[in-house]
């Protein structure tokens, strides 16, 4: 591993800067689907389960069954992101994490080409799928458990870290507190930026996510082909 980096004990795909960019892109995806693609947040599935329960409770069985589609898309993303790393590893070229970022870029390029007049459900399902893959693949930033597609866990962990800092005077919690706050701010910034460009770029506004994702992709490809090439079989923390 590159000895010149301050975080040499961690793979590039585990470093905090990568996670901040992932959170920024996730904030953009969430703002995009909310502002332009049906007023929903596709990065997680709690809302779909709630809406399905409400529909069933109101006797609207057909409407309720629709929510099984985005739920299955999210389920499939987790499934494939768990199955694919092993065969990808045998290629001995790039890490699965790197291929995934490339795949996200490809899908979001396609999303930006889909007119707003098309059914929103198509775009929602595509983002459901890649958000699930990202969430399941990127799990820890420099040893700290992270969720890279939504904010609930970061908010919870911020509260826990502050409580331990106050109650037990555990100053190691300062690092965790700061990391989770940085993730929240990154998500927020992504959402603000994407919302601002929506009136100008319309369906192509999602291409703004390609900026942070491309930075990640270039950085990880470089690592995979150079100073981390001998570590392609190494598992990131949390796997």
Task: Give the arrangement of secondary structure elements.
Blueprint: H1 16-36, H2 46-57, H3 61-66, H4 68-83, H5 85-91, H6 96-111, H7 120-137, E1 140-141, E2 144-145, H8 152-168, H9 173-201, H10 210-225
Antiparallel strand pairs: 1-2
Helix pairs in contact: 1-7, 1-9, 1-10, 4-7, 6-7, 6-10, 8-9
Q: Count the helices. How many?
A: 10
The structure class reads mainly alpha
- What portion of residues is helical? 55-70%
Alpha-carbon distance between the two ends = 20 Å
Q: What integer value in Å does the Rg equal?
A: 19 Å
Mean pLDDT figure: 93
**Helix and strand succession?**
HHHHHHHEEHHH
Sum up the overall morphology in one term: globular
Q: What is the total tally of β strands? A: 2
How do the strands line up in the largest sheet? 1-2
**Beta-strand content bin:** under 5%
Total separate domains: 1
Flag low-confidence runs: 2-6
What kind of sheet is the major sheet?
2 strands, antiparallel
Please describe what this structure looks like.
The protein is 66% helix and 2% strand. It is an all-alpha fold and 239 residues long. A two-stranded antiparallel ribbon has the order 1-2. α4 (68-83) runs parallel beside α7. Residues 2-6 have low confidence and may be disordered.
């Amino acid at each position: 591993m590159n000895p010149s980096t301050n975080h040499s004990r961690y793979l590039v795909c585990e470093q905090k800067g990568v996670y901040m960019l992932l959170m920024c892109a996730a904030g953009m995806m969430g703002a995009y689907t909310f502002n332009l693609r049906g007023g929903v947040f596709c990065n997680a599935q709690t809302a779909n389960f709630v809406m399905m329960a409400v529909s069933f409770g109101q006797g609207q069985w057909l409407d309720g069954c629709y929510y099984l589609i985005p739920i299955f898309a999210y389920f499939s993303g987790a499934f494939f992101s768990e199955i694919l790393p092993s065969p990808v590893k045998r290629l001995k070229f790039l890490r699965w994490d790197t291929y995934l970022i490339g795949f996200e870029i490809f899908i979001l390029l396609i999303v930006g080409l889909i007119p707003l007049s098309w059914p929103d459900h198509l775009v929602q399902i595509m983002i459901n799928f890649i958000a699930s893959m990202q969430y399941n693949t990127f799990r820890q930033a420099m040893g700290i458990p992270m969720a890279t597609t939504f904010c609930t866990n970061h908010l919870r962990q911020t509260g826990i870290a502050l409580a331990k800092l106050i109650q037990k005077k555990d100053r190691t919690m300062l690092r965790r507190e700061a990391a989770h706050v940085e993730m929240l701010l990154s998500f927020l910034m992504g959402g603000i930026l994407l919302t601002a460009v929506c009136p100008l770029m319309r369906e192509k506004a999602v291409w703004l996510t390609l900026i942070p994702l491309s930075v990640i992709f270039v950085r990880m490809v470089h690592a995979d082909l150079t100073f981390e090439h001998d570590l392609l079989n190494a598992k990131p923390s949390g796997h």
